[in-house]
Amino acid sequence: MPDVHEIAIGQAIYAEIVASQAETRSFADTQLSTRDGACVTFSGIVRDHDADRAVRELEYACHPSAEDVLALIAGEIATRHPQVSSVRVAHRTGLLQISDCALFAEVCAAHRAPAFAACSDLVEDVKKHLPVWKRQVFVDGTEEWVNSP
Amino acid sequence: MPQVTVRYFASARAATGLAQESFEAATLGQLLSGLRGRHGERLGRILDGSSLLLDGLHVSDPLGSMPDGAQVDVLPPFAAG
Known about the structure:
Number of helices of chain A: 3
Helix content of chain B: 25-40%
Low-confidence stretches of chain A: none
CATH topology of chain A: Aldehyde Oxidoreductase, domain 3
Number of domains of chain A: 1
Distance between the termini of chain B: 41 Å
Number of domains of chain B: 1
Order of helices and strands of chain A: EEHEEEHEEEHEE
Number of strands of chain A: 10
Strand content of chain A: 35-45%
Largest sheet of chain B: 5 strands, mixed
Distance between the termini of chain A: 38 Å
Number of strands of chain B: 5
Helix content of chain A: 25-40%
Structural class of chain B: alpha+beta
Strand order of the largest sheet of chain A: 1-2-6-8-3
CATH topology of chain B: Ubiquitin-like (UB roll)
Largest sheet of chain A: 5 strands, mixed
Radius of gyration of chain B: 12 Å
CATH class of chain A: Alpha Beta
Oligomer: heterodimer
CATH architecture of chain B: Roll
Number of helices of chain B: 3
Mean pLDDT of chain A: 93
Order of helices and strands of chain B: EHEHHEEE
Strand order of the largest sheet of chain B: 2-1-5-3-4
Mean pLDDT of chain B: 97
Structural class of chain A: alpha+beta
């Protein structure tokens, strides 16, 4: 079970780096609050192409601080969106196949508008600030660390 | 001369073939030019685009001093999600 950090105003924060698809799936099992009326989820999925090149698989590598940074990002989203009741986010590490889930995010709230807004901000902040790297292996056998000079 | 442990991640690890190594340097600038000299142009390009952590805190001043036993992390641009 993921760690639960209840912060002062009663928002629940869950943040985890997970090493397998099974863990991603179990993480995605929501436990709703009776106050929730909306739950917005996002799954970032490994696709089979990038800029017209055929992709075979991806590997994610994490800095040792990644899980702490993920929890900070989720906590900051809860603070910025005080109407949400819970913020949950998991990022995969290790080798992923096509159609595997790399990033799972979920935000619940009494009403849909804050849940949509917070979930979108959460995904953008994770992509910008999480110290995680992606090695992309193409079908032709070449590979690259995405975004690296 | 202070002894620094340099940890490499992602493309920096691929370019050096190392997860970490020791290096003697008194300042950040000295460390970076020493690493370029040791590992060549590919790591040099990656260093230009990387952020650096000194004992967990971001640093960028080339004149900043290196405490003995410091740990420097080389973080290439992130690619989460």
